[in-house]
Design brief:
Blueprint (H helix, E strand, L loop, with lengths): L14 H9 L1 E3 L12 E3 L10 E4 L3 E4 H10 L8 E4 L12 E4 L1 H10 L4 H4 L8 H13 L4 H8 L3 H8 L22
Antiparallel strand pairs: 1-2, 3-4, 5-6
C-alpha cells in the first residue's frame, strides 16, 4: 500500500491530529517487500521499546500502528485487541503489514522468531514454589534489591510485582527453613 492510497477518514479522531500523524510518515524506498509493499515508518516520538506514539485530542496517547489499523479498517479497537507487525518493524504503520491478533498469537510469533525473553534463555523459565518462597523471604527481609532478584531468578518486573503484591503465587509462604537459603546470597 502507498501513502497516497490511504484514506483520511478520521472516525473518532480530530482531522488536524490525523493530518499531523500522516505528515510524520515516511514511505521506505528500500527494505524487504512484505505482502507486496515496503514499510511506511513513523518519524515522530517513540517509546523506550521503539514503538511510535502520538497524542490525539480527546483520545490520549495511542500507538501509531494501532491508530493506522483503526483508520485503515474504519473501526475502533478494543483494549484487548493486539495489532501485530507482519514485517517485524516496530515503526511500520503500513496497513498491509498489520494484522489483528491476540496476546497469545503475538507471544507465539515473537518466540518463534527468537525475540522473546523465554527464547533468549533457551526455553520458558519456570518458577517453582520453592523459588517463589525464596523470593518472598528475600523481599520480606529486605536483603536484596528487586534488580538482584530479576537477574538471579531470571524473572521480569511484572512477575516480581505479582509475587510482591499477592497477585500471583499468593498461596506460597516462606518459613524459617528458608533462612538456610540465605547462604546462597552471601
Amino acid at each position: 500500500m502507498k501513502l497516497a492510497d490511504l484514506s483520511t477518514k478520521v472516525g473518532r479522531f480530530k482531522e488536524t491530529d490525523v493530518q499531523r500523524f500522516f505528515a510524520r510518515l515516511e514511505e521506505k524506498a528500500d527494505g524487504p517487500l512484505v505482502n507486496g509493499s515496503r514499510c511506511i515508518e513513523w518519524r515522530g516520538y517513540t517509546n523506550e521499546k521503539g514503538y511510535g506514539r502520538i497524542a490525539m485530542k480527546g483520545v490520549g496517547h495511542i500507538y501509531c500502528h494501532r491508530l493506522m489499523y483503526e483508520l485503515s479498517h474504519r473501526r475502533q479497537l478494543r483494549f484487548e485487541d493486539v495489532v501485530m507487525h507482519v514485517c517485524d518493524n516496530r515503526l511500520c504503520v503500513n496497513p498491509d503489514h498489520l494484522d489483528l491478533g491476540t496476546v497469545l498469537m503475538n507471544n507465539q510469533d515473537r518466540a518463534s522468531k527468537g525475540r522473546s525473553a523465554a527464547s533468549k534463555r533457551g526455553g520458558g523459565f519456570r518458577l517453582t514454589e520453592e523459588k517463589v518462597a525464596h523470593i518472598k523471604m528475600l523481599l520480606g527481609e529486605g536483603l536484596v534489591t528487586p534488580g538482584q532478584i530479576y537477574r538471579n531468578f531470571g524473572i521480569t518486573h511484572r512477575q516480581l510485582w505479582g509475587i510482591r503484591n499477592g497477585r500471583s503465587w499468593a498461596h506460597v509462604k516462606y518459613n524459617d527453613r528458608d533462612q538456610a537459603m540465605l547462604a546462597l546470597w552471601d
